[in-house]
Write a structure and sequence with these properties.
alpha/beta, Nucleotidyltransferase, domain 5, 4 domains, 12 helices
Amino acid sequence: MPHRNAPLSETGRLRLARCVVDDGWPLRRAAERFQVSATTAKRWADRYRADGLAGMTDRSSRPHHSPARTPTRTERRIIKIRVLRRWGPARIAYLLDLNPATVHRVLTRYRLARLSHLDRATGRVVRRYEHHAPGELVHVDIKKLGNIPDGGGHKMLGRAAGQRRRSAHRDPQRPRKLTNRPNLGYQYLHNAVDDHSRLAYTEILADETRETATGFWLRAHAFFTAAGITVKRVLTDNGACYRSHLWRDTLTQAGITHKRTRPYRPQTNGKVERYNRTMLEEWAYARVYTSETERRQALPGWIHFYNHDRGHTALGGLPPANRVPNLTGQYT
């Protein structure tokens, strides 16, 4: 089949060639008649003389010889390193003293999966899934995050000043290597993300005990219910709070099925894990904060932006609000 920019179809080529070969038309006259160059008219006339009707079909533009092509042995080394070590093109190129673009072309030629599509531990292609309606599955997880000291941390004061602040908090009764940081404590981000819509609910809490985790879920469940989402299943990791009887009984009373990931397989809960990363990049570490209070005050605004305005690649560039029936609460 001719490409879309070809001036002649196979039938047009045959007519042009017959005008030149059979009817004796000059090349320039035939080229003007069929609105092509004289060189094109000569090419199709020569093919018709040599091959007849079969010469009017398209031929591959691939060269007969490729002396500059990467040797087969080098290609095999590239593939072997990719499969065994799961390295990217740049890293493979540095090892083999090649151009990264050359390595990328080899990987593309042999249709090897992108690293982002592979499980780094096993090398298998990750199976991606999405439930068909909001509430069919909600991912829940906890992210531990260190607090910012008043006046700012090392991002504001610099590494040297941050080292002095750490030294000031050392306990002289304990070994130095164990107290080389201030006792500022941690915050625990309890997160819930709907599988279908990616609608997120987050709270900053003091710990990750079973009582705290269960209380968070009750509020998260109320949030999803107010948005018109009926939660059917909840997926968590194997943390102690999620293995407790209190967590189990709370979900059972609400008619919700609890599912847990396989041990050492956080990618099973990948949607909330990706949300954790996005939250750290776009909120927790997005700018320099002068205190932990300032950072916490910025969280509600960012979550609203994430749910209502921020485009999501898995949703075709649309925010989660476009997949939620009653996020604004205007339908009761």
